[in-house]
Design goal:
By secondary structure, the chain is an all-alpha fold. Helices cover about 70% and strands about 5% of the residues. It has a single domain (about 5-145), classed as Orthogonal Bundle (Histone, subunit A). It has a two-stranded parallel ribbon with strand order 1-2. It is globular. The chain starts with a helix and ends with a helix.
């Protein structure tokens, strides 16, 4: 998987986690799914406002997610992860188009979701070093409640 080492360093930097290739596959699936969830809501907002393009302000970005986006941007790995996260952000299941600004923002949103996921693992188990299936399921269920 491309970028394995870069993602491993990112998760170590954010939350002292050691992820393996299986974890990174799960991470990819998680990011694609959560970005699509955000875009579905953004699409609903745009349609409700009679627009056929999703703008950045249509996305339900919470204060906490905004803080995680800023945290992502400050990491040493942010620049190296942008192309990989951008590829994940290209998998969409919505009808409307994105504005250029929204398109450009999705990589940072994916980075913020990644940082939030890392922190969620540490909240689930503060001693956790390498998440297993049970921790992944708990983390995903938490995000499904909110995103």
């Amino acid at each position: 998987m491309a970028g394995v080492v870069t993602f491993e360093r990112f998760f170590r930097e954010i939350a002292a986690l050691d992820l393996d290739e299986d974890d990174l596959r799960r991470h990819r699936e998680f990011i694609i799914r959560k970005l699509n969830d955000l875009l579905v809501r953004g699409q609903a907002v745009a349609k409700a406002n009679r627009r056929d393009i999703i703008e950045p302000f249509d996305l339900p970005i919470t204060k906490g997610l905004q803080e995680r986006i800023q945290e992502f941007r400050k990491t040493e790995e942010a620049a190296a992860l942008e192309p990989l996260l951008g590829e994940m952000a290209s998998h969409r299941s919505i009808d409307l188009k994105l504005s250029d600004q929204t398109e450009a923002r999705l990589t940072d949103v994916a980075g913020g979701l990644s940082a939030a996921l890392a922190h969620a693992f540490r909240i689930i188990d503060h001693k956790l070093k390498n998440p297993h299936t049970e921790q992944w399921e708990r983390a995903v269920r938490l995000f499904d409640l909110l995103v």
